[in-house]
Amino acid sequence: MGQRRALVLGAGGFIGTHLVRRLKAEGAYVRGIDLRHPAFSSSPADDFRIGDLRDRETAEAALTGDIDEVYQLAADMGGAGYVFTGRHDAEIMSNSAAINLNVLHALRARPAGRVFFASSACVYPVRNQADPRDPRTAESSAYPAEPDSEYGWEKLFAERLYAAHARNCGMTVRMARYHNIYGPEGAWTGGREKAPAALCRKVAECVDGGIVRIWGDGLQTRSFLYIDDCIDATLALMRSEHAGPFNIGSEELVSIAALAMTIAEIAGKRITLVHEDGPVGVRGRTSDNRLVRESNRWEPAWTLRAGLDVTYRWVADQVAGHAAPAS
Would 175 be classed as within a structural domain? Predict the structure, then answer.
């Protein structure tokens, strides 16, 4: 058997950067496509191309040669400060839809072995996530549809798009609904960062005994999956006989206030939380892993505390480096 050849779309992003690194560690030949290179490290991809997948010719060119695995991670996305304000809805929907339509058009013309599509927990209905202590996110609960954002609506449409191509065009497609992936080399400032990185930054910038501001009352709950677990699950699903979509996340539910206090404890700082208005999304969300556990025998290996410890150290280093005067 020859060397496995993988194509990672969105290879310059947070998850894409880690996925390329893992695939190379496994001995695969990797081609990566993105608008830009990874922000915090050089990519080990054999062939990294700067390109915009909203352009059909870019998507077609990405698929030249034999490709065994296509990982479609490319999307217009960010944390609550980007997705839930309503200011970016048209961009989010049109950009991501264009990417997926172009990728599938290219795949119809030049089929690959297997295709992985990264969906999101944002597809789940708002009505099932009103109780922060008991959110409900079994895969089958996505319908009747009521996603919490236009980002979620586009992801749900894209799931159906990939499933239709699997049925009608003979594609082998695997789909996962990611739940709040975090870890080193993710955005930590700039407006697109997610809660763990944003709170790590705020704690790192805070003096001992200082104030950390959080959006909402802090009682809203989430679960967060460490990046290494995300990559493990993605590869396991891609190579399984089960199409999905499957939840890929942690079942370790935590309030945003408790998340902030845990990070402060890791940092060795005393903090006071101050609540302010801001986009908070649904009241509660965690991953329901029953289906992926039964079908793929996958479980997260990292606890939230262990993942936050690594992530905080990395973000704190970024904060220190950003604040350091130029030499």
Answer: yes
- Same domain, residue pair 14 and 128: yes
Token pair listed for 230: 């995300």
CATH code for position 146: 3.40.50.720
* HSE-up (13 A, CA, CB side) for residue 17: 19
Residue 95's H or E segment, with its range, is: helix 89-109
10 Å CB burial of residue 249 (0-12, 13-18, 19+) is buried
User: Three-state DSSP class for 284?
Assistant: strand
Within 10 angstroms of residue 312's Cβ, the number of other Cβ atoms is 24
Length of the chain measured in residues: 327
Question: Which amino acid is present at 173?
Answer: V
Separation between Cα atoms, residue 108 and residue 212, nearest integer Å: 50
pLDDT in tens, 139-152: 999 999 999 999 99
- Catalytic position from the list 29, 124, 151, 178: 151
CATH number at residue 213: 3.90.25.10
> What is the count of structural domains for the chain?
2
Judge if 37 and 135 occupy the same domain.
Answer: yes
Do 307 and 232 contact (CB within 8 A), yes or no? no
Amino acid at 231: I
The pLDDT, as a whole number, for residue 1 is: 60
- pTM score above 0.90: yes
Looking at the fold, whether 167 and 258 belong to one and the same domain comes out as no
Domain that holds residue 203: 182-223+252-284+304-322
Report in angstroms the alpha-carbon separations of 89 from 72, 84, 96, 142, 174.
Answer: 21, 9, 11, 20, 26
For residue 162, is pLDDT > 70?
yes
Q: What's the start-to-end Cα distance of the chain, in Å?
A: 51
Distance CA(113)–CA(211), nearest Å, equals 52
- Identify whether 162 is a catalytic site residue: no
